[in-house]
Amino acid sequence: MKVGLFVPCYVDQFYPGAAIATLKLLEKLGVEVVYPPKQTCCGQPMANSGFEHLTIGCNELFIKNFEEFEYIVAPSGSCVLHIRDHLHDDKQPEAAKSISNKIYELTAFLTDVLKVKKLSAKFPHRVGIHQSCHGQRGLHISSMTELVAPEFSKPLSLLQMVDGIDLLQLSRKDECCGFGGTFCVTEEAVSVKMGKDRVADHLEHGAEYITGVDMSCLMHMEGILKRQGSKVKVIHIAEILNAG
């Protein structure tokens, strides 16, 4: 199996450890991983701000970089959802559709494609899980509490395979952190208040780490934690699944 590794801009710039952990984890599970070196932004920030018509160059480059792969995997639910729902190219509609159908968020790829049942990971810490909105409500990698339906969580199922981890039960386990991409810029006060509420839930339950599938959400909460002088850290789920 040959997989193309898509690394979002903010992961590349601020949290390269998440990308490295994703690469190492996939290789550990027997996957051949290739990183196309000419990849850039997928265009999500522009699209989120109402300028999707300016993402044509991003779309064309994304197709050029990733059309050869059987699967595309990224450590980011929001960027994967953008590609799935919005990638388009009037000159190459079939190529765009093909890529939209074969791109996966990391935990969904591990559970749905590789069907991982066991991990050789160890992380002896108290960990709170943040279920990010794009992953949960867009990619359906976990269930929503407002629905009368069986509960499931692909990230949780993988974390439960990690030796020594103490997973916390939060009071509001699928509440939004308030990041929302450019929402945190245009609605700063609301975004910060939502983030403080989300962080407080983790702190009240004694978290040492907050993890999730989106470093963007974790980055938002990390900023709040640092301003509060908290010792609680954020960590991408790939770094836990590859730990030890």
UniProtKB/TrEMBL annotation:
Cysteine-rich domain span: 3-84, 127-221
Any one GO molecular-function label of the UniProt entry: oxidoreductase activity
Source species, domain of life: Bacteria
UniProt cross-references to InterPro entries, sorted A to Z: Cys_rich_dom
A GO CC term attached to the entry: cytosol
Annotated protein name in UniProt: L-lactate dehydrogenase complex protein LldE
